[in-house]
Amino acid sequence: MYDDPTFHAHISEAVYNLDMSVFADQVFCSIVAEMQTWPQLRELLMWPVLNQATEKASLYRNIAVGHLRRFVWRSQGDVDIGLQMGAQNTILANLQDKVAYDALSTLNSTELVQPQTWETLVKWQQRRRGALKHAMRALRRVLPPDVWQQTAEEEADY
């Protein structure tokens, strides 16, 4: 499987998009961390939920890209397990991104954030999610449909 050019192309595409998602996640997290220092926002109750979801999503992104990067570098490891773990962790990151977005929605309703800041935060949230979705599509192309479906169903119950 390592030598299949189509497999390699899809894995490389997934790694590239996960890298872009991690990059956008870093910027997003820096904005969130800065906002938590602002006096008018310090006491909001949504921070623990947002922080936990963001930390988990970041971890899952890094685990996924690590598994897939091993294929690009032709490292040792079980291909089936690596693919499944890459898929599981992208799905888990996506689920945590939804939790983060819901928490952010409560922040928007407070009107304590300037529209320009809000737009910037949403832009980076969309970039991290969009790149993650592109990675998931690339992974779907190399995973057998039943494996992807089983993985998605298991993680939906998470």
Based on the model shown, name its key terms:
158 residues, mainly alpha, single chain
Quickly describe the structure:
This protein is 80% helix and 0% strand. The chain is mainly α and 158 residues long.
Query: Which residues form runs of ≥5 with pLDDT under 50?
Result: none
Distance between the termini: 30 Å
Shape: elongated
Instruction: Describe the largest sheet.
Output: none
Strand content: under 5%
Residues in helices, as a percent range: over 70%
Describe the protein's architecture and organization.
By secondary structure, the chain is mainly alpha-helical. 80% of the residues lie in helices and 0% in strands. It contains five helices and no strands.
SSE map:
Layout: H1 5-35, H2 47-72, H3 79-108, H4 115-142, H5 145-156
Helix pairs in contact: 1-2, 1-4, 2-3, 3-4, 3-5
